[in-house]
Amino acid sequence: MSNAARFDAAKTLDFVAVGRLCIDLNANEINRPMEETVTFTKYVGGSPANICIGMSRLGLKTAFIGKVANDQMGRFITGYLNKEGIDASGVTVDQSGAVTGLAFTEIKSPTDCSILMYRDNVADLLLEAGEVREELIAATKLLLISGTALAQSPSREAVFQALDYAKKHGAVIAFDLDYRPYTWTSDEETAVYYNLAAEKCDIIIGTREEFDMMERLGNNPGRDDHITAAKWFDHSADIVIIKHGKDGSIAYTKDGASHRARSFPAKVVKTFGAGDSYAAGFLYGLMQGWEISASMEFGSAAACIVISSHSCSDAMPKAPQVHEYIERCLAGEITAASN
Amino acid sequence: MSNAARFDAAKTLDFVAVGRLCIDLNANEINRPMEETVTFTKYVGGSPANICIGMSRLGLKTAFIGKVANDQMGRFITGYLNKEGIDASGVTVDQSGAVTGLAFTEIKSPTDCSILMYRDNVADLLLEAGEVREELIAATKLLLISGTALAQSPSREAVFQALDYAKKHGAVIAFDLDYRPYTWTSDEETAVYYNLAAEKCDIIIGTREEFDMMERLGNNPGRDDHITAAKWFDHSADIVIIKHGKDGSIAYTKDGASHRARSFPAKVVKTFGAGDSYAAGFLYGLMQGWEISASMEFGSAAACIVISSHSCSDAMPKAPQVHEYIERCLAGEITAASN
Amino acid sequence: MSNAARFDAAKTLDFVAVGRLCIDLNANEINRPMEETVTFTKYVGGSPANICIGMSRLGLKTAFIGKVANDQMGRFITGYLNKEGIDASGVTVDQSGAVTGLAFTEIKSPTDCSILMYRDNVADLLLEAGEVREELIAATKLLLISGTALAQSPSREAVFQALDYAKKHGAVIAFDLDYRPYTWTSDEETAVYYNLAAEKCDIIIGTREEFDMMERLGNNPGRDDHITAAKWFDHSADIVIIKHGKDGSIAYTKDGASHRARSFPAKVVKTFGAGDSYAAGFLYGLMQGWEISASMEFGSAAACIVISSHSCSDAMPKAPQVHEYIERCLAGEITAASN
Amino acid sequence: MSNAARFDAAKTLDFVAVGRLCIDLNANEINRPMEETVTFTKYVGGSPANICIGMSRLGLKTAFIGKVANDQMGRFITGYLNKEGIDASGVTVDQSGAVTGLAFTEIKSPTDCSILMYRDNVADLLLEAGEVREELIAATKLLLISGTALAQSPSREAVFQALDYAKKHGAVIAFDLDYRPYTWTSDEETAVYYNLAAEKCDIIIGTREEFDMMERLGNNPGRDDHITAAKWFDHSADIVIIKHGKDGSIAYTKDGASHRARSFPAKVVKTFGAGDSYAAGFLYGLMQGWEISASMEFGSAAACIVISSHSCSDAMPKAPQVHEYIERCLAGEITAASN
């Protein structure tokens, strides 16, 4: 295989994600503050949910481990996963009266986007360790965890339980840091659990700021990417991707190499969903056995497609779309100037 | 005056409501379950908010005492109150990170409507006794309290503080029972605080079921309206309205009389908001010095207008609309059959 | 009867108290800070418990309504009540893992005493409205409530339930304000519930500072005892006792009169328990039909006996002891100088 | 060195413990249920506190990292540590109104002992990661953590922070499992954090039952000690001690060897404190460079001395006492029969 990740071809599932399932309510009236928006459209959301939908659209066999509210929103989410061909047998239904997390999006301009979150008493953070289905993790080549699920008990313990199963059964583990300050109670708490989880992961993907948050425990005052990556190679990691926003992403591998890839122009509607579609595209590439830089390129193109659209989950592309996007960019048919 | 309520003509405000301010998200696609709805329209909601908007539309001088979240939803609410001419100087802004309460409505059919509530960590229940502006209550002829605000501390204490100010300054007090089981922890707790508040009120409006809930402390196994009303006349009440759904409402007065009024046909879209528009219309009638039955009739017609519309707050009628509706009904121009 | 309180002679119980049952751990080594004390002696404590024990010692038929922890401390309390002849059938046992409240006493000097409280997750504050046995209140001449039980739900609702039963069955209601700042969350909350309860009581006993706390809602900047008392005569009260520490207590009655009584010398060990024994002695006197000033005098002598002793509950005197104490004081046999 | 642990001789402190500091209230009247005990004697308690006191008595340079309440109990604890020569500069004082944990002991018979715990809102569980003084851990040869401190946030994160510092600075880490069911919310949560901590420790000491609790995540249905120990040698451990109560303890080392030691007779008063004094004695032996079995023997003798006494902390022996106890046992001067 031409990249650092080793997937067990004998496994029957390609991809299992664990963590947040929620609802995005995207303002239909864009380029204005939410005080002035009147109508909203409902989508399935949550970073691991988006990535899982993305992987399924790309043609992989996928499953989800999570928890939904026992209400119309929860049933909408489960119905959508089923419709997308995602095995939702690991999605349990809360019986305690929890609600579905909500994210109201506000798009003031393509570059000025924000989210109003409803995260009190949400079902996804109530997933318990005992509800994590070992057989799903035993069957998968790749497990994805997401930082948000570490924010509170019992979801936090469920993630560590999932990591334990993945280690036991030899699944490759990817960690999408996905740090969101709300629901965490302190920086110390955040750093402690991010580090405990990251020590067990094979692939770690995050922004420079997310890695900074984790390093408050350690020593890297110069915020040097090599030092950051090297720490994780001393634990379980094979690949560490550090995202620098407009300056592009760099992938570091245990062999000491670093990898960059081309970026593509896009007619940006909003920035939401860029990271999730990038992660789906990149991990898909790795699982095809592509070079790391080719995988990164595929992720970038997938991200361009999503940020050119109104939704996140619903806009996740199929593989031919991504290939076509790359070709059209290379042919000069898509330019940012046409935005 | 021809009804039992005595309003102090020297006061500069007609009406002050205290309690819940929230957001209604009404499904645009009706006559289906919420799992299948895709878009929602945003309105100001909450029973006392709706009543206050109704009173303002009817031409009265109004103010609101409550608390909103420090976010786009909160600012939308305050902006709407201002636009409607309601004095919002008594609406404080939460600084603790609370959210705005949400009510997603589901209209499966005109008679099968339900609400999915978001009531965790909501700003309206964080109104504190010290934030209740005495000068607003000192200035008003009529104070309205609503049962939902009694559900939790500190909002519960704020309501008792408001009642204390109203007693001190001679405002007539109306209590819209508005009992919603969520947020209350037990039937005993509910009954205790509803009774403590009702003992101090001049006008009490509720359904038979709401009065049943309050009487679990007492003795009225036959659910006799006269016994129910008589209890409150031993305390502060002058008027007790008991609503029997399709069988209409009955108003009892301290003099031992009971009053009924005509009901009107309507092309029903949904049942939400009927009680709020009824309360606004009835209290408006009382404040005009109308007979109780005439006030009830006006309330019924106002309710018909609201339930024929998609929203609650936004559909609150002006006085001429209500008079016209009554006239058209009497002329046979509006019939339920035309629904 | 020669005092303002009217007790129903047909009732089979003299006295029922509702509220706090806890454990006092009194330092055996006195006149030093608790950092230097080594051993503690265990007693039943809690203001209403002490008063009830006092009433039973004085020869009355008594019962208690409260809740104890399901542990050795809880069983010690119930055993002690039984031993003292108090009907403990209204004392329920918590099943939620709550603990028994503790009060470690520190006696640095006879006039410098303090208490270290353990009040987290205590059983006594978990008494529920549904656990208040109506038949005990129906059977009693006099019900005592205590402010501490108002500090939290569900105990708060249990007190209002008890008041409702007492009103229904014609029991005289005494309110020992017993305000302790811990467990209350704000001054506003405190004042609201103290006032709601006091409005329903026949006899109110408290310190000037406790009445000040209740009057933050009202208008008495000069802290005038007559204004304070008059407010309650507008509600249910017949007798209001305001305690001024060393300056003695004054009883106000609905007829506009005020009453003072002699005080007695004592060899003070500590000040704890003075208020509880005073209340027991005073209420006992009232129930004997004595003049108010004679009742107050009896309360004062009972208090002298308790503060001359190491414990509170265990030192509650029998009636002959109190009479003897008064006689010995009048005969000059007891003087403070002999302390 | 003749045992598996490698201590850095250049460090200026021998031993630092992190975790629980509390108060034991030992019934003075023994051989009866607590319902019948009347007086209690106050001691410093808490497993890591006892071990630290033991290490200091044995002549080592020690320090403690923890948190105490801002009250007389907290000051008593800090004063006692100072008196024992323990560096308490790492003991912070809570400012949030937390209390000191209490343990009332009940000794029905030498073999029937129980504890009544007060663990609500205790200061020791409020130690924060940011309050763990890195310089103390940097300076110590040996760090002890205790399972109780993992039971709740923020103390849980403080322990992981301490482990991170110990790894960074090369301190040997000992983990006294000290599992107490109260304060933990579920078995899954317990197992997750015990495992995450144990993975980072060099010496792990616990009962067979404690290791069973940790293995619910794994596969050891036969409860085989070798399998248990082997798991930890795959992580950081060099020594794993599994205690089998009356059947004695077995130490496993990374080289595949197992070690047993003689046990000694004792005139048992109560069983409390046996584990803490054993741990102190054993760790002391290791730090002297003794063979593992000699260290275990020393621990056993230290335990015998403590269980023959009324207290835990106060009875911790000095080294000559332990040596003398062993000699007297070997000489037949102490026998269990003399109990």
TrEMBL record, chains A, B, C, D:
Pathway named in the protein's UniProt entry: Polyol metabolism; myo-inositol degradation into acetyl-CoA; acetyl-CoA from myo-inositol: step 5/7
Chemical reaction(s) catalysed: 5-dehydro-2-deoxy-D-gluconate + ATP = 6-phospho-5-dehydro-2-deoxy-D-gluconate + ADP + H(+)
EC number: 2.7.1.92
CDD domains: KdgK (cd01166)
Domain of life, per lineage: Bacteria
Residue ranges occupied by any Carbohydrate kinase PfkB domain in the UniProt entry: 15-318
InterPro entries in the cross-refs: Carboh/pur_kinase_PfkB_CS, DKG_kinase_firmi, Myo_inos_IolC, Myo_inos_IolC-like_sf, PfkB_Carbo_kinase, PfkB_dom, Ribokinase-like
UniProt xrefs under PROSITE patterns: PFKB_KINASES_2
Record Pfam families: PfkB
Alphabetical keyword list: ATP-binding, Kinase, Nucleotide-binding, Transferase
SUPFAM superfamilies membership: Ribokinase-like (SSF53613)
Family, as annotated: Belongs to the carbohydrate kinase PfkB family.
Known role: Catalyzes the phosphorylation of 5-dehydro-2-deoxy-D-gluconate (2-deoxy-5-keto-D-gluconate or DKG) to 6-phospho-5-dehydro-2-deoxy-D-gluconate (DKGP).
Protein name as catalogued: 5-dehydro-2-deoxygluconokinase
Native source organism of the sequence: Paenibacillus glycanilyticus
Gene that encodes the chain: iolC
